[in-house]
Amino acid sequence: MKIKKVLRFLMFAAIALTGVSLISCLEDQYTPVPVKLSDVDGNYRARLVTSQGGKINEKLIDFNAKDSMITFKDFPAREVVKTIITDPAKADTVLAHLEKVEYKIKFKSKLNTEQNVIELALEPQLMAFQIPVEGVTKSVAVKMTAKQKGFYVGYDNSLRFAWEAEKITVGGTDITPYQTIKYEVPISIKN
Fold it and tell me: Which of 9, 69, 131, 167 has the smallest number of Cβ neighbours within 10 A?
């Protein structure tokens, strides 16, 4: 009999404690820290998703955003090289000897206080580098374009954007047939 009374008391105490703790949660509210245009500037680590046709490749990369410019010091040019050189063994040899390719994307930023984000109007630049093709070094020019805005999200301090390689020219000649290469940074973490 005493055990039943003790158990009832403990059950009542547990229910009362749970109710009090839930009431205290009602007063907790998330107050976002407002973003500023300068918040975009910084060094980032990102997951770059590259797709061409049905093939998808993911790679961790680092980049920098400063003064309305996103700069990749070592841009992964794998898909571009494999589009130019269709023999996989030769393409792998070229990739092994390819120097770092720097690539830059200009952007114009606009504050969206309602959603606590910074909208980025991307202006991808021409990517140019040299590769050896059949024993001759040739100039490669990749015309890039962006069809959607990028975003700096104040909630998690991340940068998200996408663009695509519209056309590849080697030594002044366009690569044909050509499938568009799409690049997407779905999430990047500010260092």
Answer: 9
